[in-house]
Structures are given as structure tokens and as C-alpha cells.
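Here is an idea for our session: we take a single protein and study its fold together. Which protein we use is up to you, so please pick one and set it down. Once you have written the record down, we can walk along the chain together:
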Amino acid sequence: MDEKKILLGIGSIFMLIAGLTFLIFWERGGSTRVLAGEHSVAMAQSDEHRGAAFTGSRSGVYRKKMRSYRPENGDRSFETVQQDVIRFFHSLDERQYIQAHGFPEGTYKFFLKVLADLSASPPIVSGETKDVVRLRLNMTHFERIIGSGNISLIMEILDNEKEILEPSAELLYEWIVKGIEYRNAEIKTSDRALSDYAAFFLTTLSGKSYLWRRDAKTRIIVTYYAILIIDRANRENLNRYNIDILPPISHLKEDLLNYRGLSRRNEYVDRLKVLEEEYSQ
């Protein structure tokens, strides 16, 4: 598979598992067709929220705040997190390079559409290598579900949003998990869909191939959130593939100890140490 298809896949699914998070919505293949004719998303399209869009220096102030974003506590309401997410997407809508690609109804609505499409058609996790047809379906999964257009946009996002990659992933992960818990009608995904993608990256040949063809930062963050999703599945008795996440936890912890390109590296390591201790007992 060529590098463009690899970029398409990893760019798409990262959003799903980090918040699932951060890179899915960047893939705009067919977005004009997808967005046209869809029912409006009240939260994203209301005059109140549009009036809160960030422009000029206000956008810069928001991005500075985003770099230090931390969830206040585990008891935040979905509505509070939703407001943070709306601000995040409005900030992106004001970015010149995003405007050049044209999102007539905003990046928030486009993200919801991509999230729903990916969740409705998860990859094959069990028995991927039983025959070449299954393997090829997994290797071309993201291209088939999202489309192969606008690879250049993925590269623009990766280049322009590096400074807020980690806090954005954290915010979007929190938002999707809470959206599932609150049964929010806009967030059309489920714990099962998240678990399927997490298992795909942690256990399948195709999933691992996607990750190892990406840079270390992307690979580590995707793997980190995949582990959190499987841990969540274990706590909810939803780990239907019986995935043992202790080996991925140990491997990722070692990767983090040897990689210094993440501002929240120590936080990730501490979280993994807690999980490692729990699963070792």
C-alpha cells in the first residue's frame, strides 16, 4: 500500500480513538457532497455559537489556552465538555488554511459525520489473516469508508496543529466517552465501535502496519488511547475479543521513556504504571 493510503488511514482513525480522537475530521474527501443536505446540528449551527467563533487575536488567545488544557476533574458534565469542543472547532473554522478548503457548515458537523461513518463500519478484528480478502479489506478500510481525497489537507493539519495535538486529543477523547455515557444523539458511536478500532490497532496486522508507518508521536498517542479504550471495555465487561493489554502497556511505557517529543509524557507514563500494576495482579 502506498504512503498516501497509509496517511489516509492513520489520519482518519486517530480522531476516533483519541477523542478518538484528533485527526479524523481532517480527511475531507467528498465533504461537499457529505455536508450538503444534512440536517443542521443545533449546537454547531446556532447563532449563539456562531457568534462565539474566534477571529484574529481571539483565536490566538484560544490556542494558547488550548496548549495547557486539562480536564478540571472527572465529574465534568457533558454540557461543559461540549462547550469546550464547540470552541475548539470554531477555532479551527477560523484558521485560514481550513477556510481555503471550504467547510460550508463547519468542521464540527463534518467531524460528526466522519465519526458516524467510521463507527457504522468498523474494521475486521478477529480472523483478519484467514484469507487475502479479509486482509485486503482491513488494509483498505479507511480509504473505503472515508474516501481517498485531499491527502494534502491531512499534511496541512499535522503541520499546523502540532502545538495543540496532545490537549486536543485529550479533550476529544473526554467528549466522546462522555457523549456515549450521556447518550448524546449527535455523537453516533458506541463503546463497542471504539473497542473495535482500539483492538484493530493493538492486535491486527493491518492496524499495527498503519501505526508503524507513522511518526513516533502519532503512533504513541494512538496506542495510548487505544489502551485506555480497552481498559474502559474491561471495566464495563465489553472486551469481547479478550485482549490482554498488559503487553501493549509495557511496550508503550518503554517507548515513552525513550521518546521525549511529547509534552505530557510523564502523565502518560504515570497512567500506564497504574494500569500495569492493576493488570499485573
User: Anything to note?
Assistant: Confidence is low (pLDDT under 50) at residues 1-56. The chain has one domain: 3-280.
